[in-house]
Design a protein that fits this description.
The protein is an alpha/beta fold and 277 residues long. The chain has a single domain, classed as TIM Barrel (Alpha-Beta Barrel). It has twelve helices and eight strands. Helix 4 links the parallel strand 3 and strand 4. It is globular and about 40 Å long.
């Protein structure tokens, strides 16, 4: 039986460089969904802004049918921010959008400024998980070098402290390398803590000194670069994770590709990696 594949948002978002306040894809949602299906993905991710825009053109029923008709079983929305801020309510609008498309997962991000400690985020994460549990969606925190949750230990402190079955971590190849997370540590994660994974190729040599450019301009396909993604898959399996296997390519070269070529290349690279495991 072939492995199930998930295409994270930037893998099929087209020619759009992630910038604060400028995240929506220039491509029609239907085109992206159909391209993902043709490449063999059963899961796809989208930015909240993409769903907001799509709801101006389609009803929620039409969006769900668009996904179902193309065999997209898993829908991820990103990125939930400020869930840890006392008095903030980022979940209400996000929940509305997640319900509209039948989202199965919401990607959350940590703090990018200020002195926010992991222990101060536990209650907020528990509340966010409870909000999305009602629609059967997981909430996953993506560890990032640029955020306050930049080590495996910090991320685990939040998700284990919250103690919610639908709450866990998302690990991404680039961030594994940039955050200095060992594969042994991933393999030893508590059962149920690892709920999502994204593979991408990490370029050889030192990182771009501009941390944002390093994140969004240089990633390679999962079967390229200096990092052993097959070993990461094996470590994830040891931690109890067994797919769907995600791919997230945020890179200048990838953005320049036509949509179908971009998603086909990423799907082929994922299959090449999984074949080595």
């Amino acid at each position: 039986m072939s492995e199930k594949l998930h295409a994270a948002n930037w893998t099929h978002a087209g020619d759009i460089r992630p910038e604060p306040g400028r995240l929506a894809s220039p491509l029609p949602l239907r085109d992206r969904i159909e391209a993902g299906a043709r490449a063999g993905f059963i899961g796809m991710g989208f930015i909240f802004d993409d769903i907001t825009s799509a709801l101006h053109q389609h009803s929620a029923t039409e969006l769900r049918a668009m996904l179902a008709d193309n065999g997209i079983e898993q829908v991820e929305l990103e990125a939930l921010a400020d869930w840890f801020v006392v008095g903030a309510d980022p979940c209400t609008d996000a929940l509305r959008l997640a319900e509209a498309v039948g989202a199965t997962r919401v990607k959350a991000i940590g703090a990018f400024e200020g002195d926010v400690q992991p222990e101060d985020m536990i209650d907020g994460f528990a509340r966010a998980c409870d909000r999305f549990a009602g629609i059967g969606a997981n909430v996953v925190i993506e560890l990032m070098k640029a955020s306050n949750l930049n080590t495996l230990e910090k991320g685990l402190a939040v998700v284990t402290g919250a103690g919610r079955a639908n709450g866990g971590l998302l690990i991404d190849s680039m961030h594994v390398v940039r955050c200095g997370i060992s594969l042994d540590a991933i393999a030893a994660m508590p059962s149920g803590a690892l709920l999502a994974i994204e593979l991408d190729g990490v370029p050889e040599g030192p990182p771009d000194p501009d941390i944002w450019a390093d994140m969004v301009d240089h990633r390679l396909q999962p079967d390229e670069g200096s990092f052993d993604n097959a070993a990461l898959v094996r470590a994830a399996r040891a931690a109890g994770f067994n797919g769907p296997w995600g791919v997230e390519i945020v890179a200048r070269a990838h953005r320049a590709l036509p949509l179908d070529e971009a998603v086909r290349r990423s799907a082929a690279a994922m299959r090449a990696v999984l074949a080595r495991t």
